[in-house]
Amino acid sequence: MNAMHPMKRFLGLDPESDPLDILGLSVNDIDEDSIRSSVDRRERQITDHPDGESEEAKNVRQHVQDAAQLLLNPIARLSILARHVPHELLARGGGAAESSQKLTRFDRDVLGILVACGGWNARSRARLMAVASRYGVSNERLLSVLTGMASWLQGRAAEARPQASVLADSPLHIPKGDMDDKVAVVFDRFVNRWMSDLRSDDPKAVNRMSVLFGAVALLLFGFMIFLLTLPSEDVPSQEGRIVSDARTPEIKSPVVSSGGSDTEAPSSLDARLVGRPDLPVYMTNVADAIPEIIGDLNAIVLDLNGSDPASGQHQQFADLVGKASAGWFLIGPGQRTLLLSSISLVFDSISSDQESLVAYMDALHFQAGVFDSAEQIPESGFRSGVLSMLAGSSRQSPTVRSLATTLLGRSGETGPSSMDFTSGVLHCLESYLPRMIELIDVESDSDLQWYLWVSCIESLGDPACQVAYVQAVDAIIRGSINPASAGTARDVLADLLSLFDYEESAVARDMVLGWYTDSDVPLKRLEILTTLLVELGLSDRFDEKMIIRPESGPAVAREQRESLSRSWGGGLSDEFEWRSPVPDGFDPVRVGTWDTLWRGIQSEVMQMSDAALLQRQVEMRLLNEAAAALSEGRNEVGMKLIREFENGIGEVQDSSAMIAPDLVSLDEWSARLKLARTRDDKLKVLDQLRGVPPGSFSSAAAIQLAGVAYQSTSAIRSRAQELIIGRFSEDPEVMIALLDSLPDRVTKEIGAFLESVLDRELPEIRSERWRSEVRRLLVERSLLLRLASSAIIDRYSRRLSASYVDESSRLGMKALSTISGQSPGDAITLLCAVRMNRLEELLSLSDAMVLTDLAKRHEARRRLAGDAMQASLMQSLFLFELLALEWSTRLPSLSEDIEILVDDLRLDLPVASHVLEQMVLVEEASGRIWEKVLDAFVRRQEALG
């Protein structure tokens, strides 16, 4: 087998050739025409080779195409040209002086990831992208930092290690400017040099890449060791030790520098208004002794597994837990996981000994909500977290889980929503908020209390921590203390507000926007909060305009909230919708009943009679009225309407629910019947009428069916007569069509057919009385059918009017005595007026203009209505548009879905052939809005527990 590389075989080139060599070009002729002609030349050279159609030839062609694409790209072309610049020119200006810039936290995190992941690989790339997102660093800036580090390593690899005294005075500097340009050239040369090996499956190429990246990892590891010897910028503790970053939580600032910029993200507690209090010495000592504590716990596990569980080691266990609870928040997540695992193994070892289990469990006792000293805050939080972990662990025996749950209840906690360590800690710490606020301006160690509280939460590193901060802020602003005056309360509030990332955090956004419309936050306190945000300068969007003065009033507060919300580029999340909280008494079970009925009624109707269409409208109206009541927490009213719907409201049986899926409209049926030529085709077309309900025939379709029943061939005529007798003898249009289409020459078969239709014995067909008698009977039957349908329609109309009036009454309308007896159109007009009044109270100034425009468009449409039926349709459409506007405003998260429903209705209305059918479509669209509103309330209630 030929082991020669394909590039060598087909083009005679080294596999590591750069794009210029691959295409045979010089630096002076790389215009587009030259590049394309070179590609054609290489293509012919490959095709002329004996193996020009092989798979290897295809790969070489692709390699040529890749080289051409690189040269056609302006940025890549400059990088390739830079490799052909003489080395002497590139080496000039390499001795840039060092500046006083130190490595930032972002640089340190990047180096740590590269060392921990063994260099540049998929794992390190994923972690680097996550870190860059957390610091707010763009991809281009991250690449600049990486190339800057590579340049520093290359330029200083041969230098001797500086002395510690020199390092203290001359911090490390990564040159910028010229260095970045040189690094870009080196980086591009490196990429193009190894591109073929990266894309190759050859084992030799894989081995070369392994050696290369291994060497890079070793260099980075050496560089990391070198950095660890640099003097740290952290504050020394009482015993001269360095407090690690894990013990000094960091604000997630949206503006973070890296790679030599001038500003560095501040450390969280150092940059706050409250001076960081000194931690008790024993806490930092315990944090350093956590590995020994873990070892002692594992030793207890070994002893318990090898001896009697009642050997009296519970006192040692209690001492170890007491020590661990004092410093757990100062250690990293890895050590904390090992610590919790060791505690879990202890209880796993004694799960069969009830007496020992109780003794060991007593070591985790704590009291929620009250404390005697600040040190009890982290200690009780740790014990609560361990108990929650044991109570929710499937690894533990039922006895352990039961005892842990009982001890949580005895502590005064109601229990976290989910049983794990993080939830237990947060639940306990939240119970301390009322007591901490009482002591905020009283106790001398209030600063230490809040510092420990925040440090415990930050050490968890969980998204739920943001919600805990919101609860702390809400507890302060809703409490009796005054955050306006200088003191600990104002400083603590400022500290808590500084913990949020106001650019990325939805929790922070919802918290701030919620203040503007929260009835529990007076305007005076809102002024204090907004002024504090502006003074802190935590976001560029926090300026003087966001401050609300007490004399401005709620309307201005809502306007400012709208402006601030738009600057954030989105609406509120479902959990913090401010305009429409989940109403008191809202019952998801009853909503489930409504939803089942609503889904069952949404069958597509191709043809329906007038009475059946009106019945469908009344049924949908009842469900929409029930949904409106359920959305306000009026469950009794909603269930009463649902029961009325289930019991039935009329005598017309709507057979459209049984329509075959392939049923066509009567217009299509008429066209198909005209096109049918054979007997079988005509019989199939006639059979399609078996799913059409009586009363739905138009005049033209009825005359066509009557003509077939009178004059077609025997088989077809018999099938049409069978359909009329069995299904359409109650349709007035068919009766009139049979009269108008009656032939001059009547056979005995036609006479028998009409006797069956009329259910009457007729005179002999030769009698002069026969034709006049048939005419009289058909006209009378048609009129009786129309009168019966009219009575049903009147009953439905009255029920429809009552539904609109009832909803108007629930929404606050008065003087109902003047409403009785009015038409559905008048009742809809009344309901529209009531809903407009509600919207005017709810909407901001900008939304009020939308409402005014909507009312003007409706008035223009109403004047174009030709009769009362069309006027009622216009009112129904206006009511739907008001409903859509109201819930788009109250639940902004549904605005896009509601807009889609509005657009769909605009497309469906012109297709409907009857005004009643259009009114049914409007009512159905309203029901779809209620469906989304109720579903949103159910989801939000589940999220809030």
Average pLDDT level: 73
- Cα-atom Rg, whole angstroms? 41 Å
Count of separate DSSP helical elements = 42
Number of strands: 0
Helicity level? 55-70%
Structural class: mainly alpha
Shape: extended
Largest beta-sheet details: none
Instruction: Flag low-confidence runs.
Output: 87-101, 156-180, 232-274, 571-579, 650-663, 815-820
3D architecture notes:
By secondary structure, the chain is mostly helical. It has 5 domains: 6-84; 90-228, no CATH class; 281-471, no CATH class; 665-789; 797-943, no CATH class. Helices cover 64% and strands 0% of the residues. The chain is built from 42 helices and no strands. α13 packs across α15 (314-327) and α33 crosses α35. The longest helix has 42 residues, at 769-810. The protein is extended, with a radius of gyration of 41 Å. The two termini are 70 Å apart.
Summarize the model shown.
By secondary structure, this protein is mainly α.
Question: Which helices and strands occur, and which strands form pairs?
Answer:
Elements: H1 6-11, H2 19-23, H3 32-47, H4 55-72, H5 74-82, H6 87-91, H7 105-116, H8 122-135, H9 139-156, H10 164-169, H11 178-199, H12 203-228, H13 281-288, H14 290-306, H15 314-327, H16 333-349, H17 354-361, H18 376-392, H19 398-410, H20 421-431, H21 433-438, H22 446-460, H23 464-477, H24 488-497, H25 506-515, H26 523-536, H27 554-568, H28 588-601, H29 610-631, H30 635-647, H31 666-675, H32 679-687, H33 699-711, H34 714-726, H35 732-740, H36 748-758, H37 769-810, H38 824-842, H39 845-863, H40 868-890, H41 895-908, H42 915-943
Helix pairs in contact: 3-4, 5-11, 7-8, 7-12, 9-11, 11-12, 13-15, 14-15, 14-16, 15-18, 17-19, 18-19, 18-20, 20-22, 23-24, 28-29, 28-30, 28-42, 29-30, 29-37, 29-42, 32-34, 33-34, 33-35, 35-37, 37-38, 38-40, 39-40, 40-41, 40-42, 41-42
